[in-house]
Amino acid sequence: MEENINALDEMHKGCCMGVDAIHFILDKVEDKSFKKILDKQYNTYENIKKDIEDIYPEYNDGKPHETSMMNKAMTKSGIDMKTMTDKSNSKIAELLIQGTNMGIIEGRRILNNKKVSEQVEHLLDRYVGMQEKYLEILKSYL
Q1: What whole-number distance in Å separates Cα of residue 7 and Cα of residue 25?
Q2: How far, in Å, CA of 127 to CA of 15, rounded?
Q3: Domain definitions of the chain by residue range
Q4: How many CA atoms does the CB half-sphere of 104 hold within 13 Å?
Q5: CATH superfamily of domain region 2-139
Q6: Which end of the chain has the least Cβ crowding within 10 Å, N or C?
Q7: Dihedral sign, CA of 113, 117, 120, 126?
Q8: Structure pTM?
């Protein structure tokens, strides 16, 4: 049971971080096709986040972990500093790839553990698969 809660919490935090990063970076993107891709990724993170919130009560009475205000502020300031002199698609893709890779690594680590329920494993597969899909798309903007 604890493994399920930990997996759901990690995925939820990852989705929150992805949503935050895309939210903070979207106003810096001028390329309409790139912006459309980021909107789709944002919405996919939101959908997975909602699915996590929907099943979380089956495993825990509380709410899934989210990113703290401090982490949000650090993410925003980091993005602002790293894009201050370079707002190119390549730079933005690079920043998003770094975050996406962290999510993939954590998701794969949990999946390889194989101590979660089938329901949580299915969500993990979606979460990791979505990030791997967008990682490939982001690479084309480098």
Answers
A1: 27
A2: 8
A3: 2-139
A4: 14
A5: Ferritin, core subunit, four-helix bundle (1.20.1260.10)
A6: N
A7: positive
A8: 0.93
Summarize the confidence of residues 110-137 as an average pLDDT.
94
Q: What six digits make up the tokens of 39?
A: 């909107």
Judge whether 116 and 124 are in contact, CB under 8 Å. Answer: yes
Other C-beta atoms lying within 10 Å of the C-beta of residue 134: 22
Helical packing angle, 2-26 and 32-55, nearest 10° = 150
* SS3 labels along the chain: CHHHHHHHHHHHHHHHHHHHHHHHHHCCCCCHHHHHHHHHHHHHHHHHHHHHHHHHHHCCCCCCCCCCHHHHHHHHHHHHHHCCCCCCHHHHHHHHHHHHHHHHHHHHHHHHHCCCCHHHHHHHHHHHHHHHHHHHHHHCCC
Query: CA-CA distance, 111 to 7, in Å (whole number)?
Result: 9
Which residues have CB under 8 Å from 117's CB, separation 6+? Answer: 4
Contact 22, 46 (CB under 8 A): no
Extract the tokens encoding 58.
């089956």
